[in-house]
Amino acid sequence: MRRRADEAYQPNTIQPSDSYSKTVMIWGAISVDGVGPLVRINETVDSNVYISILRHWLRRYYPGLYGGGLIFQQDNAPAHRTSAVDEWFEGYGIEVLDWPTKSPDLNIIEGIWSHLKYKFRGRIFRDEDELWRELQKFWRQVGDRFIQNYYRSLPNRMRALIKAKGGYIKY
């Protein structure tokens, strides 16, 4: 369901779930230059699985993170907030953006996930493999311009969030 806190439960804000719904756990990365990897995860994500994903994919797609010029942003999923993950980042000299909890309005990748959910709304997939193929196709079609527009919107998002004193904003 996607609605503002002050909105009533309206039929157009609810997407029913059913036994036909399929799910695939994924990890994706983006930068101002476009999409990076989209990784299918077939196990429960704990700090060890997360570190394994980072170890395998970050250097390949974002070598500038190591020891320097780029800053990594992640959400505050429990597996991301462990001391083991913090130590891994520190060990490779990767600066991680200190990100407040419950702040998806400013997290750029949340806009992409929202767009994906909108595009897939109402679709039924035969199985998880079909869903995965469609996710990959969607990911390859996310254009650089689409992502850059999200980055360019950050100053407006920040101003709106400050004006709303941390409350709901339209983004």
Question: What class, by secondary structure content?
Answer: alpha+beta
CATH fold title? Nucleotidyltransferase, domain 5
- What is the class in the CATH system? Alpha Beta
Distance between the termini: 16 Å
Q: How much is the radius of gyration in Å? A: 17 Å
Number of helices: 6
The strand line-up of the biggest sheet is 1-2
Helix content: 40-55%
Mean pLDDT: 86
Known CATH architecture: 2-Layer Sandwich
Describe the structure.
- The protein has 171 residues and is of the alpha+beta class.
- It has one domain (20-163): Ribonuclease H-like superfamily/Ribonuclease H (Nucleotidyltransferase, domain 5).
- It contains six helices and four strands.
- The strands form two sheets. The chain has a two-stranded antiparallel ribbon with strand order 1-2. It has a two-stranded parallel sheet with strand order 3-4.
- β1 and β2 form a beta hairpin.
- The longest helix is centred in the first third of the chain and has 15 residues, at 47-61.
- The chain starts with 24 loop residues before the first strand and ends in an 8-residue tail after the last helix.
Structural key phrases:
171 residues; alpha+beta; Nucleotidyltransferase, domain 5; two-stranded antiparallel sheet; two-stranded parallel ribbon; 6 helices; 41% helix; 11% strand; globular
